[in-house]
Automatic annotation (TrEMBL):
<keyword id="KW-1133">Transmembrane helix</keyword>
<feature type="transmembrane region" description="Helical">
    <location>
        <begin position="235"/>
        <end position="259"/>
    </location>
</feature>
<feature type="transmembrane region" description="Helical">
    <location>
        <begin position="209"/>
        <end position="229"/>
    </location>
</feature>
<protein>
    <recommendedName>
        <fullName>Secreted protein</fullName>
    </recommendedName>
</protein>
<feature type="transmembrane region" description="Helical">
    <location>
        <begin position="20"/>
        <end position="41"/>
    </location>
</feature>
<feature type="transmembrane region" description="Helical">
    <location>
        <begin position="428"/>
        <end position="448"/>
    </location>
</feature>
<keyword id="KW-0472">Membrane</keyword>
<keyword id="KW-0812">Transmembrane</keyword>
Length: 452
């Protein structure tokens, strides 16, 4: 028996065409949604990394690193005032002003450290411990300065009572406060390191996901156009062609922006933040070194200890293979570039030459100063400590500041570049999403209307 087709019913193949168009269009829209969702996730992750490293935790960690410098300089200024005796009135007033400035800086750095600690009880306890210890230090330092003024001694070592009081203060600073300050910087620095490690892994993965999602979306758009062209025996529709081109441009722009942000994060962390933080630590340790010079004059019983401490700190800043301070002075004077230490990686190339030259001058001034002290010429040693040695140290410190400023410029430029690229992406992305959506509808809707 022959089956007769019902009059008015559409052929099966023709009846299935709208359904296939809807399925292919739905897959295409889903692929486009996946592409833009991946772009949103990737850009959000990159922006979060740039914000934490460049605007929030990064600058605050560097500021927290200034706590060690402020504390060590407070102790150095007290030692300077004690060896001045009843002379050097102007220098004593300047040292006292510097002491007050450093105390303010220390309090500000502690406030930033407390803000960074968040809900971490260990870090908060460390901040509170430093605050408590700083109060005890100030009381002891104030007592030593008061006793020193009353003694009216000539330049050089003060009376034993003054030395003993200062010992209690400097032991508190060197054995408790400075190690806590250094650990506090290391602890707060983990915020930046963990954020960078996370984003350094996340952003490339999402960038790859964006590329895959974009290729799938382009494939789906081409599939939809080919299907419509074959089914309706027409050339490719202009709306879908424009949608395809817009999607390709969005894919290229998005992948490029995420690549820029990945590079910006790497540059900001490695060539910016790490170097700035390293130089901040080197400045703090170097400042403590020049404080040891005054303590070397101040406390005759501990002179050898302060000399060894000075050497240890010198080796940590710029390392040469030297067993004693005389040998170290010789190694520095040889102008060898075969050095390691905290500043080692930062002094490679032309940028580090000024820092190394200033460091040589500082160590040469220290050598002359110690010879005067060993010859028993206390007044001349104090004059050298407050004159050529201090001048050479300030030149060295300023050279480190200038190098840190250059790295800070790299850091700021990298953060600005990354954020600017993201801002441009988010200005264009909503328009691209809306335009592609309208173009897909404009390309598909007329074909579906033909089946009504």
């Amino acid at each position: 028996m022959t089956l007769v087709q019902t009059r008015g019913a559409a052929p099966p193949v023709r009846r299935n065409v709208p359904g296939r168009i809807r399925v292919i269009s739905g897959i295409t829209v889903a692929a486009l949604a996946l592409l833009f969702a991946a772009l949103a996730v990737g850009s959000s992750s990159a922006r979060d990394g740039l914000r934490v490293i460049g605007r929030d935790a990064g600058p605050q960690v560097v500021a927290t690193a200034g706590l060690y410098l402020a504390l060590s300089d407070m102790d150095a200024q007290v030692a300077n005032m004690l060896v001045m005796g009843d002379q050097y009135t102007r220098q004593r007033a300047e040292a006292l002003d510097q002491y007050e400035r450093r105390r303010t800086e220390a309090n500000q750095a502690l406030l930033k450290a407390f803000e960074l600690s968040g809900d971490n009880p260990a870090e908060r306890r460390t901040v509170e411990s430093v605050l408590d210890g700083l109060g005890r230090y100030e009381r002891l330092a104030g007592q030593a300065l008061l006793l020193d003024e009353r003694s009216a001694h000539p330049p050089g070592p003060p009376p034993r009572e003054v030395v003993q009081t200062y010992r209690s203060a400097t032991d508190l600073m060197r054995l408790e406060l400075l190690p806590q300050a250094y650990n506090l910087t290391l602890e707060t620095g983990t915020i930046v390191r963990s954020t960078y490690d996370e984003k350094a892994l996340m952003v490339p993965l999402v960038r790859g996901a964006v590329l895959v999602a974009g290729l799938i979306a382009l494939g789906c758009l081409i599939w939809l156009q080919v299907f419509l062209a074959r089914r309706f025996r027409r050339v490719f529709g202009p709306a879908l062609l424009v949608a395809t081109v817009t999607t390709a441009v969005s894919l290229f722009f998005g992948v490029n922006v995420l690549g820029q942000d990945e590079e910006a994060l790497r540059t900001a962390k490695s060539a910016g933040f790490d170097s700035v933080l390293t130089l901040a630590r080197a400045r703090a340790i170097s400042n403590s070194m020049q404080g040891d010079e005054s303590r070397y004059l101040l406390d005759q019983e501990r002179a050898d200890t302060y000399e060894h401490t000075y050497l240890d700190k010198s080796l940590s800043v710029i390392y040469f293979d030297a067993g004693n301070l005389d040998a170290y002075h010789e190694k520095v004077a040889e102008r060898s570039d075969d050095f390691l230490g905290l500043l080692g990686p930062e002094l490679v190339g032309m940028e580090g030459e000024d820092v190394m030259a200033a460091y040589r001058d500082f160590q040469a001034a220290d050598m002359t100063f110690r010879r005067l002290a060993l010859d028993g010429r206390a007044n001349d040693a104090v004059a050298a400590r407050l004159g050529p040695v201090t001048s050479a140290f300030h030149s060295f410190d300023q050279a480190m500041v200038q190098l840190a400023d250059r790295h800070q410029s790299v850091f700021t430029a990298a953060i600005d570049t990354g954020e600017s690229a993201l801002n441009n992406l988010w200005r264009l992305l909503p328009y691209a999403i809306g335009a592609i959506g309208l173009l897909v509808i404009a390309g598909v809707w007329p074909r579906l209307k033909e089946y009504r």
